[in-house]
Fold:
Amino acid sequence: MASRRTKLKKQSDTWKLLEAQYRLFLDRNQGSKIMPDLLRKAGLRVVCHSETYTDDMMADPDWIADCSKQVDLIVITGDKAIETDPINRRAVIDCRAKIFLLEENNSRAIEWASAIIVARRRILEIAHGTDGPFFVSVKKHSRTLVSMPRKP
Structure:
């Protein structure tokens, strides 16, 4: 039994170390006070666009380039133009950025914060194990969290 406990502790320590290596960058669409506060309360390290850049109208390619220089930043955005606009897409490619796109931008901050908290290990696993550039879609509804009913 002690070896199992040791193994579980080692896995937990591994995730804590991985979480300590990365910060989540919330773009101007996600960086309201509610979402960063919830993520921080869950133990995640968060950087907000508004805390970093005084110019709220800073062009997307500029902040993408700046974030990409900081290898510990993982970009979280609901702005689909980051992937679809040719100029933004080129910036992601040129800077080898790691972009996690929220599937939509109309839900409440608490819903997205919950989804990110639940998915944080997978987000960190992808960010740590995959070289940029890439886009990853993040969904707030996951059928894998709850199984199908089983008959007794």
Q: What stands out?
A: Helices lie at 2-21, 34-41, 49-52, 60-69, 81-84, 86-95, 109-129. The mean pLDDT is 86.
